[in-house]
Amino acid sequence: MIDRFVVTYLRRELRGRLQQALLIALGLGCGAGLVLTVTAASTGVSDAQSSVLHSLYGIGADLTVTKPTPAATQDPASNATGDLQQNTLQSDGLALFPSNWISSLASLTHVASAAGGLELSEFTQSGGIPQAIPTEGVDVTHPELGSLASATFSSGHNFSATGRSSDVAILDANYAAANKLFVGSTITLAGTTFHVIGLVNQTQASGATDIYVPLGRAQTLGQSPAGQNLIGQVNVIYVAASASSYTPAVQSEISRLLPTATITSASDLASQISGSLASAANLTNDLGRWVAVAALLAAFAVAGLLTTAAVNRRVREIGTLKALGWPTNRIIIQIMSESAATGILGGFIGIAIGFAGSALVSALAPKLTAIIPQQNGAGGTTTVAVCLTTHLSSTAVIAAILLAITGALIAGAAGAWRATKLQPADAFAQIQ
Amino acid sequence: MYALSGVTKTYRKGHHAVTALDNLHLTIAAGEWLAIQGRTGSGKTTLLQLLGALDHPSSGVINFDGRDLARLPEADLTDVRANFIGFVFQAFNLIPTLSAVENVEAALIPQRLSSAQRRGRATDALANVGLAERADHLPSEMSGGQQQRVGIARALVKEPKVLLADEPAGNLDIDTRDEIMSLLETLWRDRGLTLVVITHDTSIARRAERVATMRDGRLGIDSGATIEDADGN
């Protein structure tokens, strides 16, 4: 049970020296608040990066396997004589490889699953103007892999696992709205009618596929630029490792198995992403972190100086307590208790500053852009706009309180050390 | 109560050594009232600090009730101060953020009493000095005389054997000075305390049973018409 006198003395001292206590608490709070703000900004940037990466390859895919486009590639929209082909579903950009590669990759050590896909274009004409509508064949038995995995359904539902040969399609919600399509509508791909079963919202970074169909139908209806059918062919394989720590090992295994393939991991892609999002990530991770650490150290140092100065001003009081027979450790407990109370106050101030700073960053941060190189080997980039949304976790909030208390206790230790050096006689010598 | 033998205290000030007490001999009987006079810098405050176990001498023996204060470790000196010695200071030295009764209670913290016991004894001590109605007042809300009464209550609440007073009336007007000295005299007589008062005021010194004079670190005992040193010379 805490002695009433201890609480009374503590409360009176803090109230009696309220200005100084508030100053110390404010300093500690600013340091902790800055750390919180930088943490929130860094988390927001990380989340933005993750959303870009996830929408590119879908949640669950650690690696993507493709093949470089052959050097000489016919215009995919033309036939062998160079005539424009209408209503055809053709592969373009990425080279084709046998879909039995999928089972080879799935059987590798530390691979949880693998699925194939076909990135195609539906070539058609609208008002006499040729159009290429991005279309993708997805493996309906692995909904957790592929670019459809990161999309959210605004209406309808996903493909069923048994519907690999069904003439059903899922549309991008924006594409559907522009063409006045909805669940239950029908579209024509390569002369075949497909029923729309779902509409999805996708981020800009997902590659802007407008139409998704089961892989089996895409293989049946599609053709290569040279006019060959695509049965048993894919042009992208998604691989999920059994644990993210195995990704590098799996990547090495696939490289050995498929030396001509291009294997891209999430970190590879992250390193390729440029634009203001990448700059913001560097800023928060490097400069922001060091600024926060420097501010925190400065807050600790100022708190220590102020606490030591306060002890110096209390020489007479501390000397009197020693003359009354107070043991040194009792005096240390008194000083440390005052510091801890100041630290707790500083922690709450830090939380308030952290939330305010986080909200300010969210409100004032410019829209960031991620420039993503296209993965079809044809060069070019996609620019994606990303909103920065900061947030603070409960862990970060608790850490802020602990940081402020730690700083206050360090300051209190400095003051307590000064108090232990005081001799009762020395204290009186200063006041006589 | 006290037997000082060959006590010397030297302070280092940079490259210089200052001798505050020079081979001092002094005996103070239990229940005696001794006044120590002297000019500023004569060493009287240093002597009081050694008697109060606030410092160690550079050499010599300070026998206090059978224990040599000069050889005791700091923890034991703290124990002596907590239980056997009370201090009254010229500047009162009250803790400004605590009330009168809480300042008196502070002297009982080392004795590990319950909160209720401490408060009871502190209240009684204040009543003994005539300040029961000021128990909840802060030092800033009291006059100098009242603050010194609180200081006296704080010194006596632990029922010490010795009361050491350093210029107890130094910051007070004449009327209040007499009031405080009369209070000290009453308490000394009623409780059988050993009382040592440092003062530069001859009228206060004359109230004591014995008067000593400090000069350049040496002590002389005033026995009426002549001043002799502690060895009777």
Give a verbal description of the structure.
The complex is a heterodimer of chains A (432) and B (233). Helix content of chain A is 49%, strand content 20%. Chain A has 432 residues and is an alpha+beta fold. Chain A folds into 2 domains: 4-53 and 276-431, no CATH class; 68-260, no CATH class. Residues 73-84 of chain A have low confidence and may be disordered. Helices cover 32% and strands 30% of the residues of chain B. Chain B contains 7 helices and 11 strands. The chains are: A alpha+beta (432), B alpha/beta (233).
- What is the structural class of chain A? alpha+beta
Mean pLDDT of chain B: 87
The main sheet of chain A comes to: 11 strands, mixed
Q: Helix coverage percent of residues of chain B? A: 25-40%
What would you call the quaternary organization?
heterodimer
- E-strand count of chain B: 11
> What is the count of helical runs of chain A?
12
Spatial gap, N to C terminus of chain A: 39 Å
Output the radius of gyration of chain B. 18 Å
Radius of gyration of chain A: 32 Å
- Tally of DSSP helical segments of chain B: 7
Biggest sheet character of chain B: 7 strands, mixed
> What is the string of helix and strand elements of chain A?
HHEEEHEEEEHEEEHEEHEHHHHEEHH
Biggest chain pair interface: A-B, 29 and 33 residues
- Beta-strand percentage of chain B? 25-35%
